[in-house]
Amino acid sequence: MSKQLTTVDVVSANLGDKACLVKAFEGAHAVFGVTVGLTQESEEVQGRNIVDAVRAAKVPLLVWSFLPSATEVSKGKYTTIRVRSLLIASYVPFDQKNAVEKSISTVGQPAVILNTGWFADNLLHQLNPDPNNSKKWNIMFSLRRETKMPSVWVGADLGSIVTAIIDHWEDESWKQRLMKEPIAVAPYEILGGKQAETLANVTGKDVAYVQQTEAHSPHVRQTDVHQQALKDLGNFADEGLFKYPDHSDLLKKLVVKTDSFEDYVREVVVPHLQSTE
């Protein structure tokens, strides 16, 4: 991003080509780093390339979307966590994204680290018609209905949060505060059962939450590795290991208005369900 956000230049770059990234980043005031799954290079390699290119191009600020190391948080108990395990069998972003965060510290790149939590946007992949009742919908996920997940509506909130960080970056007091520790940009926690309850209340439809102990989805490949990852993700969250500190006051001081799960349901899920009728 340029310092003045009144204009946007679109450039092409390959996350696997560091030299290409350096050229793309030249003159940028800030870079928001996002890696891509299911490509030739792992997310860790892509992330390290972004970090090195940002440093080489002398970009003042890197904003990095971060996940904790599941291996470290669980003290080696969970090593196969896939944050999108319901959708893609070979995604392993928890530890890979954590490794990139360590790389940022090693090279000395000024950066703001964001903990994004679970994406409300994933709900459309989890919401399926009940096979035995055409008037009923099921939210299918690996967590127990009583498990809380820190969450964010990426499509509505993440861009405004990143923009607010960039706008405050040149204020030295804000800079130190933003760099002090990873910032949780998960405005709310929600239970799986509460998701179903909210959908039912807003849409007037019969909605249930179904804990998925096996992968029964056209979006995933049925493999033993994936099944174990699905189980581990559920256990990881059930044991309270996927939990962030409350940074809502910080977001308010950045003058960022965030959205609730109900907002997401009204603006995205309702039109989606209407389109299926």
UniProtKB/TrEMBL annotation:
Residues 7-220 form the NmrA-like domain. It comes from the Eukaryota. GO terms for cellular component: nucleus. Keywords: NADP, Oxidoreductase. GO terms for molecular function: oxidoreductase activity. The keyword Zinc-finger does not apply. It holds the Pfam family NmrA. The keyword Oxidoreductase applies. Belongs to the NmrA-type oxidoreductase family. This is NmrA-like domain-containing protein.
